[in-house]
Amino acid sequence: MEKIASFTIDHIRLQPGVYVSRRDTIGSQGITTFDLRMTSPNEEPVMNTAEVHTIEHLGATFLRNHPMYKDKTVYFGPMGCRTGFYLLLAGEYTSRDILPLVTQMYEFIRDFEGQVPGADPKDCGNYLDMNLGMARYLAKRYLEEVLYDIKEERLVYPA
Predict the structure, then answer these.
(1) pTM of the model as a whole
(2) Residue 84 and residue 90: Cα distance in Å, rounded?
(3) Which H, E and C letters describe the chain, residue by residue?
(4) What is the pLDDT of residues 85-113, one digit of tens each?
(5) What is the arithmetic mean of pLDDT over 17-39?
(6) How far apart are CA 149 and CA 127, in angstroms?
């Protein structure tokens, strides 16, 4: 079998950033998949499932309610390795194009207080596995260490 594209990225050199993971076309519609890498693979501890789950609920809620992107959001969810998230948007975008959106989303997560949307037994299959405090901490860290002053090498996968 052929190695899939995401397994060809050098995860030893990969650092937290916002990367175009792939571009696809379904019918006549372009889909851009982004790698929102929050931790350094194979160097830092991975995020725990509770905070990943919380970021997923808050991020998806933010995106599905965003005035410009709610109808363009195809998917937002965690990577299996728990080092970041995938964001799929209808359309063709660059990493720089979506920096304002991603920054706003992580500010929303950092500042969120109250009941996590969908954290209810009738709405979620594992509603108790949430950690808002850690989700807020990780969002703040991603904003401060990556998004607010992002370098060009954090917008394009390492060669």
Answers:
(1) 0.95
(2) 20
(3) CCCCHHHHCCCCCCCCEEEEEEEEEECCEEEEEEEEECCCCCCCCCCCHHHHHHHHHHHHHHHHHCCCCCCCEEEEEECCCCCEEEEEEECCCCHHHHHHHHHHHHHHHHHCCCCCCCCCCCCCCCCCCCCHHHHHHHHHHHHHHHHCCCCHHHCCCCC
(4) 999 999 999 999 999 999 999 999 999 99
(5) 97
(6) 34
